[in-house]
Structures are given as structure tokens and as C-alpha cells.
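Researcher: We're teaching a course module on how sequence relates to structure. For the next exercise, students receive a sequence and then see the predicted structure as C-alpha cells, so they can try to spot secondary structure elements on their own. Here is the exercise chain.
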Amino acid sequence: MKQKVLYFGALFLLMLITGVFWGTWFTLTRSIDSFSSGEFMHIGRVIIANVAIPMRIILPAGIVLVILSLWLYEGKKTAGFYFGILSLILIMAVLLITLTVLVPIDNSIKTWTISTLPSNWEIIQDKWKTFHAARTLASLISFASYSMFLILPGPVTEEKGKIKLPVFEDDF
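Model: And here is the predicted structure for the students to work with:
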């Protein structure tokens, strides 16, 4: 039962993380080139203010729960486990993209005004757009991979060679 709660918690946090990035990409990033510099600065500040604190909690917590679920998983040599490892690698890449590329850009945007707008703001905007798309894709694949970790057959049990799914109690 404890492992089920752990699996559910990790999946839920990955869903929240992916949802934040997917929603932003789907509603904003794809059309960011159509915004004026003033609109870009305003929208950027609003989004930064909305997600900065929650994502400081949700993203690391999601990573910790994924690590714990992999650590406690008994079928270390199963296909599902390797999907779990892929999920972990990708969600850590999401964190690295966020911290090394996007947060520095966000911190710059927070200081911009119309009069202090850098002359290369469109290049910065393109970089933000590219890395936001990469982060979104990585989070989507991480979520899908963790889902595969949960639904693929787990280790063969000692009892009559039955296969157990890690999340469910029923034998298949």
C-alpha cells in the first residue's frame, strides 16, 4: 500500500509539472513571436510570479518521489524499470534546463522596462521559446515514461510464475 501511495504521488506531481509546462507552451509559447516587447515583458512577469514559488516545491518533490519509487521497485531488470529511469533522467533534464537557461532569462526579464529593453530582446525571446519547448517535450516524455513504468509488468513473483503489475494487486 505504501508503494502505491508513493507511485501515485510521483505520478501526480509529474502530471502537475508537465501540465504547467504544457499549458504555457500550448497557450503562450507557440504565439510568443506575435507579442510586442511590452506584452512579452508583462506576460513574462505575470507567469514568473505565478509559477516561481509553487514550482520550487513541486519539481524537486516530484524528482524525489520518482527516485524513491525507483529505489523501492523490486524489478530492477524489467522494461518498466528502464522506463522509470528514463523518466527520472528527463525530469532532471527539465530541472537543469529550468535552472541553467530559463531562470536566468526570467530574472533578466523581471528587470526590463521599455526604456532598458536590450537591443537583442528578440534573440533572448527566441532562446526562451526554444528552451521552453525542449523542457515541455522532456516533461511530456518523462510523464509518459513514468506511466509506462507503472503499467508494464513488474518482476515475476515466486508464486506460480505470475506477473504482478507494480501498481495493482491483481495477478495477470
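Model: If you want an answer key for the exercise: The mean pLDDT is 89. Residues 7 and 69 are 6 Å apart (CA to CA).
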